Amino acid sequence: MTEISERPVKKVPTLRGKTIVLFFHEPSTRTRTSFDIAAKRLSADSISLSASTSSVVKGETLIDTARNLEAMNPDVIVIRHSSAGAPHMLASILKASVINGGDGMHAHPTQCLLDLMTVRKYKGSFQGLRVAIIGDISHSRVARSNIIGFTKMGAEVVLAGPPTMIPKGIESLGASVTYSVDDAVCNADVIMMLRIQKERQRAFLFPTEREYARVYGLNKKRLECAADDVLVMHPGPLNRGVEMDSVTADGPYSVILEQVTNGVALRMALFYLVAGGLRNVDD
Ligand code: CP
């Protein structure tokens, strides 16, 4: 799939005649665009729908909206929703394949897969890797999916951030916790910084952005303690100067834009699996 995206003509006929609906209840730049590009590169017909321009604003329920979309016989529905479990609920009532494009604070599985793809490209294997996930863990579906994904693949995951942003019991997913970013970064092979999700916060969880950047942000000085070939990652969107300074975000260790590039190939592969070549395989 990566190679297709590098051709002068970036299109193959694999999913010709398939219909893919992108139903996004929350804003998105990377996920929505890359799903759309992925569908088009495989010659599927994709249609994009936002909550703000759909009949959701007139009071139609999620289930009614989904059933009406299904009445048009799509093959795949990609959904992003502010409620945890919305994609799972739709998958249980619809015939179309449902892909989770991010649900509330619960999960962002395709982000996890593209992050794994990015790390594997550089590191080859996950065994023995130390992966530090730093920032607003509480509100992060990316953190939850990546804790599960990276530990499943054999990496050690350490979480760091303000105590107000690390939920009690998160260790049960298989990660360890520290409140010191310096401890987390020391000898890390991968550092994944997370955005402060102001839109999901119902309380003031840190005094000021300036103080957050000083105590919990990633900068050149902090990186000195990491592995020599450390990868700096961020799922985006980035609050520049808060969780990470520009020198680090745009520096030689950063693979942030490669994560975005890999997202297209990863989502092409996913469409292929659910709507293409392996359609008749039972699992
Ligand atoms: N990583 C990610 O989910 O970004 P978007 O919100 O822009 O899709």
Strand-helix topology:
Elements: H1 2-5, E1 19-24, H2 30-41, E2 45-50, H3 62-70, E3 76-81, H4 86-93, E4 97-103, H5 109-123, E5 130-134, H6 141-152, E6 156-160, E7 176-178, H7 181-185, E8 190-193, H8 209-216, H9 220-223, E9 231-233, H10 246-249, H11 256-275
Parallel strand pairs: 1-2, 1-3, 3-4, 5-6, 5-8, 6-7, 8-9
Bound molecules: phosphoric acid mono(formamide)ester (CP).
Phosphoric acid mono(formamide)ester is lined by residues 28-32, 102, 108, 111, 235-237.
Radius of gyration: 19 Å
What overall form do the CA principal axes indicate? globular
- Enumerate how many helices there are, as a single number: 11
| Percent of residues in helices | 25-40%
Low-confidence segments, given as residue ranges, are none
Strands of the biggest beta sheet: in what spatial order?
A: 7-6-5-8-9
* Strand coverage percent: 15-25%
The SS-based structural class is: alpha/beta
Number of strands: 9
N-to-C order of helices and strands: HEHEHEHEHEHEEHEHHEHH
Named once each, the bound ligands are: phosphoric acid mono(formamide)ester
Could you give a short account of the major beta sheet? 5 strands, parallel
Distance between the termini: 22 Å
What is the average of the pLDDT values?
Answer: 94
Task: Describe, in plain words, how this protein is organized in 3D.
The chain is α/β, with parallel strands linked by helices. 36% of the residues lie in helices and 16% in strands. Strands 7-6-5-8-9 form a five-stranded parallel β-sheet. Helix 6 links the parallel strand 5 and strand 6. It is globular, with a radius of gyration of 19 Å. The mean pLDDT is 94. Phosphoric acid mono(formamide)ester (CP) binds next to helix 2.
